[in-house]
Amino acid sequence: MSIRFQVNGEEVEVGSDGASTLILALRNELGLKGTRFGCGEENCGACNVMIDDRLHYACSIFVEDVTGKRVETVEGLRGPVADALRAALAEAGAGQCGYCLSGIFVTAHDLLSRRQRPSMVEVKQALSRNLCRCGAHLGILRAVAAAIDTVVASGGYDEA
Ligand code: FES
Ligand code: FES
């Protein structure tokens, strides 16, 4: 079966046996390795992507269910919020092994793009389903806070 959808602004076509998930198509057929496979059961957030502007697990949706939809992965997110988050996470050295970070990036980007200057309570709530087995949460939260400050200082929310 051939399935068409959009990934990071490009039309793509992948094969599917009908039981294949979006994350397998992204990683194995399209070479987008940034989306990570953790639990495979909607429990860790490592696989988070955006589908038609909504946060979604890529491990639990069949690829045929994204037919005709717009998917954005960690590789494709651009703009002032994405730039601030990338810089803050890198500068803080947030994370240890880094396995969780792309899912955290996509989740935090979703929040920071929807909410003007979210509080840390909101940040913690948004990230509460993103697990980090290294226990690097504090550094990650500090980096997200720094990214929020950067976006506010640059007036970037209007462009987000
Ligand atoms: S791999 Fe999808 S939620 Fe864990
Ligand atoms: S930094 Fe290793 S899982 Fe989060």
From TrEMBL:
<dbReference type="Pfam" id="PF00111">
    <property type="entry name" value="Fer2"/>
</dbReference>
<keyword id="KW-0001">2Fe-2S</keyword>
<keyword id="KW-0560">Oxidoreductase</keyword>
<dbReference type="InterPro" id="IPR051452">
    <property type="entry name" value="Diverse_Oxidoreductases"/>
</dbReference>
<dbReference type="InterPro" id="IPR036884">
    <property type="entry name" value="2Fe-2S-bd_dom_sf"/>
</dbReference>
<dbReference type="InterPro" id="IPR012675">
    <property type="entry name" value="Beta-grasp_dom_sf"/>
</dbReference>
<feature type="domain" description="2Fe-2S ferredoxin-type">
    <location>
        <begin position="1"/>
        <end position="77"/>
    </location>
</feature>
<keyword id="KW-0479">Metal-binding</keyword>
<keyword id="KW-0411">Iron-sulfur</keyword>
<keyword id="KW-0408">Iron</keyword>
<dbReference type="InterPro" id="IPR001041">
    <property type="entry name" value="2Fe-2S_ferredoxin-type"/>
</dbReference>
<dbReference type="Pfam" id="PF01799">
    <property type="entry name" value="Fer2_2"/>
</dbReference>
<protein>
    <submittedName>
        <fullName>Aerobic-type carbon monoxide dehydrogenase small subunit (CoxS/CutS family)</fullName>
    </submittedName>
</protein>
<dbReference type="InterPro" id="IPR002888">
    <property type="entry name" value="2Fe-2S-bd"/>
</dbReference>
<dbReference type="InterPro" id="IPR036010">
    <property type="entry name" value="2Fe-2S_ferredoxin-like_sf"/>
</dbReference>
